[in-house]
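Something for you to look into today, if you have time. Just paste the record in under my message, thanks.
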Amino acid sequence: MLWVLRCQLMFDLCIICTIPLTLCGTGATFSTMKLITTIVRPERLPEVKAALFQAGITGITLSRVSGHGGEQEIVSQYRGTTVVMEFHEKVKIEMVCSEPFVEPCIKAILASARTGEVGDGKIFVQAIERVIRIRTGENDNAALTAVNADAVQRAALETAHHAGAVAGEDAP
C-alpha cells in the first residue's frame, strides 16, 4: 500500500504521520501491480502456459529469445568447422498481475517449468506504476482483466481435467 508522509510518497510504513493514500473522492486504495517476466525452456512452454491459465493468468506475451546463463556451451561441427553455441534458445513470458495473482503466478511457473537441471530459467518481478487499456481507456486492474478471462480459464481447467483423465488420474 502507498502511504503519504509529509507530502511525499513512501512505499514503506512509517509510524509517524502515515495515512493510506486513496484515489480522490472514490475511497478506493491503490492496488499493487507487478510485471512478472520469466525465461523458461521452450519445451516447457505448453506446461507453463496451462499452469498460468489454471492460476487465472490469461494475459501473457511470449517472445523467443537466446541467452546464456549457467549452462554448458555446445560444441558441434558444421560443414567441417567447429561451432561453439554459447547462446541457448529460450522463451520469455511476460504478464502484468494485480497483487492477489502474483504468488499463484510464481508458484505456477515454478511447478511447471522446473526440471531440476541447470538452465530451467529465471523469474523477475517488478512493480508497475500504471496500466491503461488503449481500446477503452480503462486503468490499472480494470485494464488487466481480459474480456474473455472467464472463458479462457474455464477452457484451461477443462483441458487439464481431460488430460488428467487421459493419464489415468481419478476425477475429483
